[in-house]
Design brief:
Chain B is of the alpha+beta class. Chain B has 3 helices and 4 strands. In chain B, a hairpin with a 4-residue loop joins β3 and β4. Chain C has 8 helices and 2 strands. The longest helix of chain C has 31 residues. Classes of the chains: A mainly alpha (190), B alpha+beta (182), C mainly alpha (201). Chains A and C meet through α2, α4, α7 and α9 of A and α2, α4 and α8 of C.
Chain lengths: 190, 182, 201
Amino acid sequence: MEYLIIIISAVLVNNIVLSQFLGICPFLGVSSRVSTAVGMGAAVIFVMTLATIATWLIQHLILVPLGLAFLQTVAFILVIAGLVQLVEIVLKKVSPALYQALGVFLPLITTNCAILGVAILVVGREYNLAQGVVFAIGSSLGFLLALYIFAGIREKMDLVDIPRAMRGAPISLVTAGLLALAFGGFAGLV
Amino acid sequence: MKKLESTLPNMFIVLTLIALISAAALGATYGVTEPILAEQARQRRIQAVSEVVPAFDNQPTDEAITPPDNPSVQLFPARRAGEAVGAAVQISTGAGYGGTIELMVGFGSDGTVTGLSVLRHQETPGLGARITQEGFRSQFVGQAPADELQIDGITAATISSQAVIAAVERAWQILESTGGIR
Amino acid sequence: MSSVTLTREFTKGFLRENPVFVLLLGMCPTLGVTSSAINGLGMGLATTAVLLGSNIVIAVVKDLIPDKVRIPAFIVIIASFVTIIDLTMAAFLPPLHEQLGLFIPLIVVNCIILGRAEAFASRNTLVASAVDGLGMGLGFAFALTLLGAIREFLGAGAIFGLPVPFLFDNPILIFIMPPGAFIALGFLIAVVNTLREKAGA
């Protein structure tokens, strides 16, 4: 039950993109096609879950016992950068098919602030490892959902005659705003 | 100056050096700021306790009690001339709209609320964030959670209001179950 | 480098190459912390401090860093500055630090900073890199303050915390809530684009 609440809250109510403003760059950048959006979303689910486990272990087994909690930012970003590289190498060897699908998105993920953001949130909210993993999965599912819907809308918008000044980023942002407004309807669900 | 070659030893030495220098710089910064941060946290606590309970002459923050079955809650007994005049309860609730709300609730020896302050929250500015306003908080004062609390919630911020009301009731229950005000 | 080009390096961040309006970088803090002008300004200045510091250090040590480990080295340098700013703000500006919260450590993954390190500081002199960092940072701060001021004015009926008659009692709340951030920034970029087009034509 507790895990269900964490998931619903992370996917719908406090959607990581639309209400926490994390991962906006990929949200605006790789959302012009539904297929790429799904690829990016899948890569984020994979990396975010692994990164949350890794950073949680680092925080609770190394930084806190040694009284080095102030090195959190440096340690986490290095772990995430290293992890992304590792995932890339392993995927290439183990599953070329998966690598083909996710490979191009992996380098972009290091600077996806959603990964570092979720890692810091998990530690800040004093989740245990299981809760942290559930929260990471929920958050990345929320990212995938928002990205998927947004890409769908943008594909339709290709055919629309938009006023000159609003073309490109402005209309995307306004669309995202309306999507955020729609997600506001989930408030109070948990 | 010529650029350093990308040989393995070079890369290793450079990265280790950078990591060491950075750790040293951060350690130094932490050493300077840590006492300030600790003092700030202490002052804020004392301030928060004295805002919600009747005047006291002991050191409630030094006598804090952590109930064994609710480790996230802290109780601060307030005494004057050795007699219990009230207690402050620091409690947090995850039931807020934006996340965790942390409260300091004061109770008098008659079991009524003597004060309420919001220590931390992430509620929506202009809506849920109004739980910090005097108009909402002062409604609690004088009411006893043992009976039903009569509180007007904030318009369009039912979740935030309910979260605070439930937390105040829970604070009283925890205080009661750990022996009440003594 | 002549003073004319230095001035150009400094001013490019405000409009011509503004990181938010033109390059669309650093969107997360731009949307996340601009519910008031003062928060926008605080975040902008914190980012400027990190950008200035990391640009200077990287310009100084660029020849000592082998090419292949350039990115991890830059990340450690940037993350160190972010932590220093984080701790300093927590100690000396606690209310602002609390408001900005998670977005302070996230300065580390702000694409502007690594972008400037890679594109500018690792190839230019100390002075030019410092000027570039300061200009880009202040341009970012300018964009955040402007967006924060607009959202605060419409959504809370105040300017830098000072109430505006009528609007203060009847604010358009949506503008300080998450959807308002997207919508306000969208229209602001549309206005900036139009202005740039007019100036360029």
